[in-house]
Design brief:
alpha+beta; four-stranded antiparallel beta sheet
Length: 961
Amino acid sequence: MIYKLPQQKLLRWIALFLIGTFLQLLFYIPTPVLSQNSNSCSNITTPLTSEEQTYARAAWQYFVKNYQPATGFTNSTGGYPSGTLWDMGNYLMALNAARWLNLTDQADFDSRLNKFLTTLNSLKLFEDALPNKVYNAATAKMVDYGNNPLEQGIGWSALDIGRILAAFDVIRTCHPQYNEWLKGIVAKWQVARSLKDGQLFGATVLPDKKTLLVQEGRLGYEEYGARGYQLWGFSAPKAIALEPFKLVEINGVQIPVDSRDFQSTNANNYVVSESYILDGIEFGLQGELADFAARVLDVQKRRFDTTGQLTAVTEDNIDQAPYFLYNTVYANGANWATITDANQPYPQFRSISTKAAFGWHYLFPDNAYAQKVFDAVKDLHSPDDSGYYAGIYEESKQPNKALTGNTNGLILEILYYKARGNHPLIASTSASVSTGKPSENASPATPANQPNSTDKPSENASPATPANQANSTVTTAIATPADTSKPTEVTVAPIPAVDSPQPSSNLKLDRPLTPVERRYAEAAWRYFQANYHSKSGLIDDRSDFKGATLWGLGDYLAALHAARSLDTITSKEFDQRTRHLLGALTKLPLFGGELPSRGYDTRTLQPVDYGGNPVAEGNGWSALDLGRMLAALYNLKSCHPEYTAAVDKIVLDWSYLRVVREGILSSATVTKEQDGRYLTRVNPETRLGYEEYAARAFQLWGFNLDHSAVGGEYQTTSVEGLKVPIQRHRTDTNSKVNKYTVSNPFVLYALEFGLDPQMRSLFEPIFQAQAERYRHTGTLTASATTLIDRKPYTVHSTITGKGEPWVALADNGQIVPKGRLVSTAVAFAYHALLPENKYSQELLQGTTDLYNPLAGFYEGFYETTGKTAVGFTNSTNSMILQSLLYKVMNQQPLIRPTNNMKSPWWQEVSKENSGRGLPNIAKQQTKLISDSSGSYWVSDSEKAPLVSLRGSQKSKVKSQK
């Protein structure tokens, strides 16, 4: 009897165990799932070419030949029945790609995935918590890396878990009928055990059989793995941040390297291609990761340029001992190291990686080097149709005949990415952001339309226009966290086809672009490809903000004209985009029924404030933005007269009664009173340089703006011994808004209208002060307003501001320590305007390679660190295109005159009393003239006052040869 009670307890425990097991089976292994799909994943917008279909079939054959029917798994390498969770993730990505590329049918897809998930769900887990690092693909048993069965297992890999979680997300998105099954699998795993202190932790088994948790991941893969976790609600903020890292110069390129070294952590800090390629095709390269990826590709090109050795490095299996190597850009203090996981060097086995070459080519399809290295491997598949080889050995030039699921899976995933129109496979708002060192400027990026932002719009997301500076500082309330639901995008119809569209503009170019200049033009145009809203026809002012101002849309129209004139785009693309933009301009809600509002959501066309927050009635108008658009529309009529009627119809819908008053420009702002009422106030514009630019644009349309056009008395301050203008001396307003001077409006004016004697007297000391600073200090200076991807988001690198020279200011007037930037756009413009000047040549050399082949030119680089300022804008890339056009037009003003005074606009002006504030007489108030100093537009009025710089003498720009 003494054994009966323990025996009863044992029976009860067995019964409970069986019941629990049954319930697990009931809830976590559904019956086999059959097809219920079709969604956007099947939307193949850029079908594979016949050659690309051959690539895809070759890669898929690897998985056909290495399939294990008993488990549904595939071999990680050809004929070797082993696989990690990373390999399983590769297979799921390949299977999904194969389905949508029609390499397999739905029945085969369902059969394969049902078997795979059934086995995966029943896997024995390490410590009953998480999948073991590796399994026998034929038996699904836990094994070590030698494929030897182990009852305990060898631990788990957090990075591998992140990889398969990303694959799970693709499967549940593209095949939602499997969602519940996948959720059940993830629910069984104790994922939280692999997270600690905001980082990813793997598990390893020590010789004494104890389990040790170890932090996993270095720069590149760490962020990628954390993104996979994030897709399933598991946060690893330290892992997804980029820090800690440093920049190491390799072949003349500053390469980001994880600063945790091998000696102190026993973990390799290798820099390879694959992590950036995966991030690009799955999540879309964003922010600093986009910059890092471009650098990693560029340094491999530079090695080729120096040595003649094609270079595409990443980790790969090889077909001989030691069987797996990391071919790196950098690892553990050594450039171009080829090492084992134990940091043993094998430089003789460095290879050109097939998967890396495929990845770089399709991520950067216009990159000539990526094309060259791709051509070397695109046909490197086995003659017996077993898939793609891993690569080509650099030293022997012989194929590395290792066949792997990693190589072939990534090729299929890349080709599917291409077929989707280079659209990332995973819709995610997650981003890796910098949170500290090594840059003093590395505070996190939080645009106002992100859910965690509670900042004022004027502090964090101002568009790239002057409009939000002068009169808007009192207009917007604090932004509440934005609605994260995706807005409904409106579809705008282009205007009807125009009569007899011209094959190109009627400009006569003095010479064609050089090959280098053409590369720059194509790089700048990439911004307008990457940020184009195909439904609305609009372009974002900045790549991280779904909004546009009228100034930004004017920039876009000017870029369209320049790209077509330079033959960067075809006449068909120019016509399609132009008609679409004009169609959108007709649909923009007008503030008070008068003029376009200050900002619009580029997806919905609804008015927004500078923080991206909806404002149903709008928030006023900007005369400066309006001037920018009027200049671009006038030039469209001049150079492409077939659009005249459509352009005039748009501008005749607007009312000018309050924007032009007594010869000056005024803008409207909306203020909120203490009693809750919103009131509109109209005040004169006073932004130095911008006012003069906009006034000249209005004069093209016949408006009398003698008091806003360049001329009269200007207050100056001494900078580098030169009298630099700081503001116009005027009696019509006591506004104190403008207290800084930057280059942007002056170089834009010079490019489009030329340097008339009055503007020249302002332009020259502004340029010469920057040249003198460089001469004295060696600091390259191109002072401008630029946008960056972190606070304060807008930086005014001034020539003079708040009474001090060379300060960097935020929108709110606060000084930004070490925030000064060298502007890429201004550097291009100064060189176009002054090509023989030694200093402008120095500027160009310092900025010409500051571009991402996928996203356009960066805003510039920081003066103090030389680090690239991550940020892409409409204005910068538009000005670069305009600068290149100016060069090949023999330095003629970009705005060309038209003699068509019988267009709808001038006919309406002639009628008088329109009730819309149209000009009094049908005559342009400015004209283009030429003299010994060049061609330029001047006021066609005897009342235009000469420029007087109070207490200064005119200074001339020296060539500094």
